[in-house]
């Protein structure tokens, strides 16, 4: 990928609300060129979506998230993909990764209560053919997500004026 | 504040001020200090563009290395000139980055910030009456330290029309038979001006012809945009005439560690080391360990920070021009230096009104010496949203004038 696109992505990763004009200024590039690069990346699904990082622990309506380690038997001809698809189509599932190591899929499931997540695992995930075992790990506290520290302790300690 | 009338010696009724050395009495109080007091007294909701340091914290691996060394009990004195592995790393870094080759054993001295290195250099070199040439506007310390050392500071005004470069004509005009030292600071605080190889060549010629010694403060060397910094010491014949001063504060976001260094001819470095050993003994070991880590594993992180400054630089310069302030293109450091001449106010007046009426703090240019009047130093080491907010406030302030 060309460097302009990479630089645009880095800026958008920090703040997805930067518009093409501002990005163009920051990179010393033409606005039209930046706008075109963004549309291209959107069309190519390099930029999949612009979403918001939420610290749900600050919202009354609290959510429970679990990371579930899933062992499966791959399917002849389609490997892990078919089963991964059967899992990720559930709306409760927030992310699915194929992993190296002791298990195969890492599945992130979100629910409004412990019970809801547990029942998803026992009623929906475990019964899937070829799922051999699951191990459910509940998240107790999120410190950092997508490179963003939730409760950043490092305030600006600088003197207001210095030489 | 010192209330000098009230401060009277109990023994002989002399004013306490009478005990001070004439050189210290002669130094004017720092204009930046005055402005600092003003800003600190009116804190609410102020966006300050007045800070002369990075907004990044020191990269975590650097902090972690210092913590680990403390845990292992590295809490002792080091050799006067610094721990050998740091001096080697500095020499290697300067060679790779700026093509100046120093011998780590006797041409590199680790100091308490670049500031100590400048002080040592002047104390080692100045004989009372020597004239020290200082292109201005510049960092606020050179002239007072010159005075303390018994030297006479001779300012050389530089101009926005020349992008605040030192021109050979201006340098020649300032020369007298007593001229001995030229203090250079490029990339420049406060103007953001830089000197290219072509700009340096005629300056080097004058230095040679007039047998000057150069103290080159290259603390902002890593912060140049679009072209690499050219060290004055890298010019043909200049290495032995130059004391290169630099440090870790700006490039590695390590201001509070106070880690700097001086490099130069062994005779000069050994003279400076003599003063250093009697005054501070050695730079603090924690800082030296951290600095070594920064040079060994921190260069990529440094590049990432530089890219970020560059983005904000473009944003701010364009922003000032859009709200109607003339702003030369700063090609180094992290300051923009817009002109406020068209408002008809002095920079002091403008900065004060901007502070009280628009809640934006920026340092009035006159505190940086000759040629600074009519300008405002605005640091862009702030988040993009703070910078946009500050520009909007300044824009609204200008509209109301």
What does this structure look like?
- The complex is a heterodimer of chains A (163) and B (401).
- Chain A has 5 helices and 6 strands; from the N terminus they run αααβαββαβββ.
- The model of chain A has no long low-confidence stretch (mean pLDDT 92).
- The two termini of chain A are 41 Å apart.
- In chain A, helix 2 packs across helix 3.
- In chain A, the strands form 2 sheets. Chain A has a 4-stranded antiparallel sheet. Chain A has a two-stranded antiparallel sheet with strand order 5-6.
- Chain A has helices at 3-14, 20-27, 31-43, 81-88, 114-125; strands at residues 64-72, 93-98, 105-111, 131-138, 144-145, 148-149.
- Chain A is extended, with a radius of gyration of 21 Å.
- Chain A folds into 2 domains: 3-43, Arc Repressor Mutant, subunit A (Orthogonal Bundle); 58-141, 2-Layer Sandwich (Alpha-Beta Plaits), CATH 3.30.70.
- Chain A is of the alpha+beta class and 163 residues long.
- Chain B has 401 residues and is of the alpha/beta class.
- Chain B folds into 2 domains: 16-57 and 301-400, Aspartate Aminotransferase, domain 1 (Alpha-Beta Complex), CATH 3.90.1150; 73-298, Aspartate Aminotransferase, domain 2 (3-Layer(aba) Sandwich).
- Chain B contains 13 helices and 12 strands.
- Chain B has helices at residues 22-26, 31-40, 60-71, 84-98, 113-125, 142-148, 168-174, 197-209, 266-279, 285-297, 299-322, 347-358, 384-400; strands at residues 47-48, 108-112, 131-136, 152-157, 179-184, 213-217, 242-247, 259-263, 335-336, 360-361, 363-364, 376-379.
- In chain B, the strands form 3 sheets. A 7-stranded mixed sheet of chain B has the order 2-8-7-6-5-3-4, sandwiched between helices.
- In chain B, helix 3 packs across helix 10 (285-297) and helix 5 (113-125) crosses helix 9 (266-279).
- Chain B is globular.
- Chain B starts with 21 loop residues before the first helix and ends with a helix.
- The relative contact order of chain B is 0.16.
- The mean pLDDT of chain B is 95.
- The A-B interface holds A 7, 11, 15, 18, 22, 25-28, 154, 156, 158-163 and B 30, 32, 35-36, 39-40, 43, 46, 48, 50-53, 55, 57, 139-141, 189, 307, 311-312, 314-315, 318, 361, 363, 384.
């Amino acid at each position: 990928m060309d460097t302009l696109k990479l630089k645009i992505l880095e800026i958008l990763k920090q703040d997805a609300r930067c518009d093409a004009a501002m990005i163009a200024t920051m990179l010393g590039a033409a606005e039209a060129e930046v706008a075109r690069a963004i549309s291209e990346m959107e069309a190519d699904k390099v930029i999949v979506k612009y979403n918001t990082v939420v610290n749900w622990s600050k919202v009354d309506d609290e959510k429970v998230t679990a990371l579930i380690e899933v062992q499966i038997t791959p399917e002849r001809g389609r490997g892990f993909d078919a089963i991964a698809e059967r899992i990720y189509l559930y709306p409760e599932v927030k992310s699915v990764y194929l992993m190296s190591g002791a298990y195969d899929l890492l599945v992130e499931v979100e629910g409004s209560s412990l019970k809801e997540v547990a029942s998803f695992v026992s009623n929906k995930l475990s019964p899937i053919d070829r799922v051999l075992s699951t191990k459910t790990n509940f998240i107790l506290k999120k410190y950092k997500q997508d490179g963003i520290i939730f409760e950043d302790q490092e305030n600006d300690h600088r003197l207001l004026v210095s030489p | 504040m010192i209330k000098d009338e009230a401060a009277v010696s109990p023994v002989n009724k002399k004013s306490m001020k009478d005990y001070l050395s004439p050189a210290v009495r002669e130094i004017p109080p720092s204009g930046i200090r005055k402005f600092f007091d003003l800003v600190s007294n009116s804190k609410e909701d102020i966006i300050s563009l007045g800070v002369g340091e990075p907004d990044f914290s020191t990269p975590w691996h650097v902090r972690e290395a210092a913590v680990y060394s403390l845990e292992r009990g590295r809490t002792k004195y080091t050799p006067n000139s610094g721990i050998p592995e740091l001096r080697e790393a500095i020499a290697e870094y300067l060679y790779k980055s700026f093509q100046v080759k120093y011998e780590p054993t006797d041409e590199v001295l680790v100091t308490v910030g670049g500031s100590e290195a400048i002080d040592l250099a002047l104390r080692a070199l100045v004989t009372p009456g020597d004239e020290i040439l200082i292109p201005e506007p510049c960092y606020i310390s050179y002239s007072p330290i010159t005075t303390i050392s018994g030297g006479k500071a001779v300012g050389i005004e530089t101009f926005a029309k020349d992008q605040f470069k030192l021109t050979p004509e201006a340098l020649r005009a300032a020369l007298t038979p007593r001229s001995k030292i030229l203090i250079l600071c490029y990339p420049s605080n406060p103007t953001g001006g830089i000197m290219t190889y072509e700009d340096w060549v005629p300056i080097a010629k004058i230095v040679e012809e007039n047998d000057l010694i150069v103290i080159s403060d290259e603390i902002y060397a890593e912060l140049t945009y679009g072209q690499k910094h050219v060290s004055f010491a890298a010019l043909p014949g200049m290495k032995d005439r130059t004391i290169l001063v630099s440090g870790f504060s700006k490039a590695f976001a390590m201001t509070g560690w106070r880690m700097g260094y001086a490099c130069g001819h062994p005779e000069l470095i050994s003279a400076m080391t003599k003063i250093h050993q009697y005054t501070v003994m050695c730079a603090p070991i924690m800082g030296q360990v951290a600095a070594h880590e920064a040079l060994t594993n921190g260069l990529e992180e440094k590049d990432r920070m530089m890219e970020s400054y560059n983005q904000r630089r473009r944003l701010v310069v364009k922003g000032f021009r859009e709200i109607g302030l003339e702003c030369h293109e700063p090609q180094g450091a992290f300051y923009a230096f817009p002109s406020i001449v068209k408002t008809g106010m002095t920079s002091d007046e403008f900065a004060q009104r901007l502070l009280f009426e628009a809640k934006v703090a920026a340092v009035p240019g006159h505190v940086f010496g000759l040629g600074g009047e009519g300008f405002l130093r605005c640091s862009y080491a702030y988040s993009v949203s703070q910078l946009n907010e500050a520009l909007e406030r300044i824009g609204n302030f200008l509209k109301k004038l």
